[in-house]
Each structure stands twice: as structure tokens, then as C-alpha cells.
Amino acid sequence: MSTSHGHSWQPKKAKMSRPSKGKSQVPKAPKPQSAPKRRRGRKSRFVEVEKVERGSIIVDRAPRGAPRRDGNIDAERDYICLDDINNDLELPTGFPNTYNGPEKVFYPWWSNNRLKKTTPDCLLEALNREINYFIHYIKPRHAEKTMRRYLIHKVSVAIRNAWPNATVTPFGSYATDLYLPDGDIDLVVKFNGFSNDRRVLDQLADIISTNHISRSFPQVISNATVPVIKFTDRLTNIKVDVILNADSGVKSSHYVNDTMHAHPGMQELVLILKHLLAMRNLNEVFTGGMGGYALSCLVESFMQMQPKLAQRTINAKENLGTLLMELLKLYGINFNAGRVGIDVKRGRFFKAYGHDRFGNPVFTITDPNDSNNDLGAKSFKTREIREVFKKAYFSLYGVMHDYLEFGMPSTQFNTSTVIFNHIGVIPLSMMEQRANIMRVYRQGDWRKEKYYSSFCE
């Protein structure tokens, strides 16, 4: 046989090892086989609580299920790393010291519903059930709603005592019921003749401080695009942002409420994505993340374009698992953020050129209340946001792929979190904030304040 260059090709002869002179040829003992080394800097896909000792959680890795054999998904590369579960953690105050597994620590929404479980028929039904448990846990309790209303009431009374004609209106996630247990409150103060100069902002901050509402003197940020006052409530540790004479936030809240009423299931999907981004500090616009209003428009556009939802052939609330996976796949993998814009008011996509000043693609989302406002222009961390969506999709798809290919006893659906354990991790800071609000509500010291007499509980 000859090659294309005309030279004959012959296989290479194997080299024979020659015994060295002067040395006896004693065969060496075979080395004991050790466990394969793990790559440094990698993190396992699952976490498991090994034991608990007086308030400290010892976390150890214990992969669940068979290893992946699909070349398109890498169990380590596609794992969504959460810093909160990589080190020894402190238990939130008010929680018991005895745990039987990871569910009570990182998945309280699962352990709280343990006695209500019935064996589902399929994986998608199990995913729907876990999503419903998660949403039920994330939604505010009666005590949380009451303490937030009371905080708004305190601020309103203090401001009206100084400026009788002023009005205080909540907007944002509080007004739309899309806030997480550790979410903040956005307020707008309206008053004729107000201006956003530093003097008025300092007066408002002084009113909040002298009425002993804030834990420390409020922070005044007057050089921002929208001047804002930030403070933390003295009783509940809830963070509050106050702005002056801005109607856009209130209009946006009204629009989101109307949209959620028209699209059942939208609230659940927005809460999941919001939690997903908040866990990675990608939920604030001023740091390059995506705010709740823009996130709501993303979900609304998806529900407008989803064929079966548009034709009303499926019930969204009964198919949250399927819709969540399609939503994550669309915006995490398939959507061309730099070339395609979103217009929810007209229910369409359009050709756009959405890039930040460094040339990186960003979402182009037309504000339904103001066509000249692009809700995604300031989200310069769009690449990180899409990466989170992509990895979340791969995590859900990978777990379902493993179980479908290698099988799983139906009883395992009821023994641990099966599918949603990658996305539904609850940070200890969130549990501590909820426990603190519940403690303040039950102790009842807030009912002794001067503001309580005019508050309708």
C-alpha cells in the first residue's frame, strides 16, 4: 500500500524491552488501584447533609442517580453552583436542631408537605407537584403581609404628619405580589411642588429617622438617574426604597397585575425566575441584572408565543413543569438577544440591535407603557442571566433524562426532592428573614407603637 506521496507505508514494529546488564529481573509488584482522581476546582452536582451538630451543618457530596451518558450534558459543567451550600452553615434561629436529610435545610418547601404526598404517575407530574410546593412556600404568609402593610402605614403617617398633602404609594414587587420573603418595598411619595433636589431628599430622610422607623439614618442617593432614599426597617429588617414624584413604577405595577390576570400561571413562572436570579445577585438593574418588570415582560412574551397557550388547548397551571422548561430553553439557548426584540404590547418579536457599550448583546424589551423606554438596555449582565437560564434547563433536562433512561422506583418520588432540587434551594438568609418577621409579629411589641392605633390589622 502506498500513500498519496508515493512512499510505501508499513506498520511500526513494537519495541522490545531489553534486560539491563548486571540487574536481576525481579518482576515488580503491581500498584494497588486507587480511586480515580477528581478534577480540582470542580463541584459535584448534588449535595447531601451527612450529619448535624448543634447548629452547624456538615455538607458532603453524594451523587444521586446513575452517571450521565449523554455527551451533550456535563454533570459538573452544567451544575448551578450555590455558594451557600459549599461551606459549614449556621441554622436560622427558631428552627429545630434535628434533621433527617437535606430537605429541611435547603428544601423546606418539600419537608413541610411530606405528609400530603401521593405518588405521581410520571416525571412531569412530579415536577409540577414540586413547583407547586415551592410556590406555596415562597408566597408571603399572613404575618409577612401584615408586617409589610404596617411598615408602609408607619412611613405614610410619618410623612403626612410633616407634609399633609403628600401621598405614599407602593409599587414594584409589593404591589404585584411578586416579592420573595427577603424582598424589599418600593414607595413613591407624591406632593405638589416637590422636586428631586438634595434638600427635599434630606428632609424626607430626616423624617424617617426622627420617627424611629429606620435602623440607622437613611442613605440618600441623589446622583442616580432616579434619586432614591434607602433604609432598613428597625423592627423587621425589611429594606425600603423611597423615590419622589415618579408615576412610571405605579403604572408598571398596574400593567403587570392586569397581565397576570389575563395569563394564569404567569405569577408562578415569574417567581421561579426571580428566585433563580436573586440567588445569584442578578435581580437588580443598577448592578446589570434584570428587574421584576422586565422579567414579567419576558414571561408574558413567552406565554403569548407559546402555541398551545395561544390556542388555549392546555391549562397553564397544570403544566407549569413543561412551560418552565420551554421558557428556560427559549431565553437560555434559542433566543438571539442581540438581534431580536420583544414587544409584549403588540405580541410580537422584531428585528433589533441590542448591545451594550462594549458590544455585548443585551435584551431589547419595549416598555408596554412607554415605547421609547427599553427595559433591557441597562441589563449589561445579560450573558450571565442567559447562562443561568441555560444551566437551569440542562439541570432539569439532565435529571429527567437520567431517570427515564436508567429507571427509578416510583416510591422515590416521595422520599426526596427529585427534579426541582437544582432550582428550589432556599438560602438560609431567606429563612432567617422569614423567621425574624414571624417572631416580631408573634411577640406583638409593634402593637404598642403609636402608629398601631390608626392601623387596620
From TrEMBL:
Biased composition (Basic residues): 10-21
Residue span(s) of domain PAP-associated: 319-373
Transmembrane segment boundaries: none
Spans annotated as Disordered: 1-46
GO cellular component terms attached to this protein's record: nucleolus; TRAMP complex
UniProt-listed Enzyme Commission number(s): 2.7.7.19
Cofactor: Mn(2+)
The keyword Transcription appears for this protein: no
GO terms (BP aspect): negative regulation of macromolecule metabolic process; polyadenylation-dependent ncRNA catabolic process; RNA 3'-end processing
GO molecular function, one term: metal ion binding
Domain Poly(A) RNA polymerase mitochondrial-like central palm, first and last residues per copy: 127-254
InterPro entries: MTPAP-like_central, NT_sf, PAP_assoc, Trf4-like
Protein's UniProt keywords contain Disulfide bond: no
EC class name: transferase
Keywords carried by this UniProt record: Magnesium, Metal-binding, Transferase
UniProt similarity note: Belongs to the DNA polymerase type-B-like family.
Official protein name in the record: polynucleotide adenylyltransferase
Protein species of origin: Hesseltinella vesiculosa
